[in-house]
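JOB MANIFEST
job_type = single_chain_structure
chain_count = 1
residues = 468
[input]
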Amino acid sequence: MTRDHQLPGARDSGSPAALGLRLAAALAVAIVVGMVHAGSLSGGFVYDDHRFIEHNAALGSLGFVEAFTDPSTASAGEGIVHDIYRPLRTLLFSFEYALFVGETDDGALAYRLPLWHGVSIALHILNTLLVLRLLLTLLRCALLPAILGALLFGVHPMTSESVAWLSSQGDLLAMSFMLGALVLFERRGLGRTIGGLACFALACLAKESALMLPFLLPLRDLALPRADPAAPTPWARRTWIRFGLLLGLTGLYFVLRDAVLPGLAQVGHAHGSVWATVRAMLHGLAWYAEGLLAPFGFSFDTRIDVPERWSDPEVSIGLGLLASLLLASVFGLRRRRFVLTLACLGALVALGPVSNVLVPLKTFVADRFFYPALFCVALGLGAGLRGLRDTPRAAAMTVCALLLAVFAWSTFNRNAAWADDASLWHAVREDRPWNANAYQGLAFEAARAKRVHEAESAFATYLQANPF
């Protein structure tokens, strides 16, 4: 038998000692995550922020019903194709606009940007604490593994895009409601069921990534601790009832969305073929794995090439990762290690809405797409540490702590890239000198600053990389 790093009185998780340690852990995690992402407070409006927030006149007088029925309120600009339905995110922007926008003496609008970014940081801290809460339950109150797992979610560089980019507040808000639903669904009760369903509905209205929650719930319920681990583990009746209700809400969401914004796909399948899209999806899995294990550089606006052949290395790596996760999930089911199944299969479920196979999107991969799946990765880390014996566990925790420190430093340094558009595109160009959009963005910024020669040079490079 191994000793878990558990809360004192783990069998009585409501004891004062247990609650005190949980609160201390939560406070420590919140402080660390806040410090790592604090640099984004000095950030500005970048890229899509201009059309979603800065130039979106609808935010100043947005009505509640209008946000849900008029897709043009989500964005400003002529010629913009309205292909997203995230009314709750738009309402959040409108609320922030009312609180954080004033006027200067000459009548110009003054945006209190640190407060806008403070909302993003607060949402991410909330999500990290909810992850910690879920890990403590799923890992049977193993405190240190749960803390390290939550910190991985909180400080990993792949979270920088979701936290520092204001346009990504929809990702943060949707994740808050998804995690809240999972917490509410931990126990039985009509009130918890209604609350969880409400959270799911709000999450979908914040961003479409929440649509994976109905399929994540049975996996999570299977992994919940039981009084007798050796007893049979049929899913509880309430799990199936809630699953059916969630599917019903999913259908209502699609009816509402179709009434306001017909169609789901933003673009056609890669090369006009579903199989080409599948190859690109497998390439994307390899890209996410690399970003997870070696999250260095600056990955914003990454465009992956669609592999032409099934034998291409990126496809082979992605296929190997997919097979490994599926096999690990089956192993977890057969050996009754249901947390392993949730970590592996849950990550694939979380990536389903952004796989491009079900619904083709404009972008194949992005750090913000991985934000929901990072919860499953955090659970996998915590479960792996909890399963080790005492001496290897201590060594593994030390290594993890050092690695998390490196990740935190990398995340902290990424904040500088979100200061303004020029910084953003400089960071993209430095990481990927062949990225055409970087030169287009730099050309625009140079032209706005009246640096004509620099603008002409950057735009010429853009045309070479992306000819009409």
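[summary]
The longest strand covers residues 101-103.
Residues 113-138 form the longest helix (26 residues).
exit_status = 0
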